[in-house]
Amino acid sequence: MHIDEQQHEQIQAYIHGRMSADEAQAFEQAFFADDALLAAFERAIEIQAATEKAAAQPARRAVPAWFGIAATVVLAMLALAYYQVLPRGDVDNKVMRGESTELQLTITRQGKALAVSWTAVAGASQYQFNLYRSDGTAVSEQRTSDTAMRVDPEGGADYLRVTALGELGNVLSDSGLLALDAAE
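and the corresponding C-alpha cells:
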C-alpha cells in the first residue's frame, strides 16, 4: 500500500482546496477506485484533523512517567478479570444467517453402543459429531457425510452434539447438547 510522490501532492492539493472542480472530481474517482490511494487519503485527512486539533488546544501539564505504567497495569488487570468470567466449554454455535432450525436426533441404545440418526440438512456437506463429559471436556469429535452414526460412548461421555456444516465449515444447524442418559 504505497503511493508515489505525485499522488501525495494530489492528496495535499485536494485537502487544501488547490484543485479546480474538474480536477477534484477526477481525483475523487481515482481514490475511490484505488484502495491504496484511498487509505493514504484517509490517513492524510486524519493527520490534518489531528494537527488542527492539536494547534487549537492549549498546552497541557506534563503527566508523570509512572502514570502510563499504572494505567497499563490497571488495563491488564481488567482484561484478566474479564477473561476469568468468560464462560468455559463449547462455543455456542448459533446460526448467523438464514433460517435457524434445530437438528432433531433419534438416539437408540444397542447394547453399550448408541445409534444416532438425523434428517439431512439442505446445504450440509458434513456433520460434526461430538461427545462430552459432564464437566464439558470433549471426549471425541468425528465428522461424517452420512446422517447416522453408531458410537460407543467411551471415556465416560455424558452428552452429545451434532452440528450440520456447510462447504466452508459454517454452521447450518445444531442439535444442542443432549444427555446420553435420555437415550431410548
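(Above: one complete record from the training split.) The domain at 101-182 is CATH 2.60.40.10 (Immunoglobulin-like).
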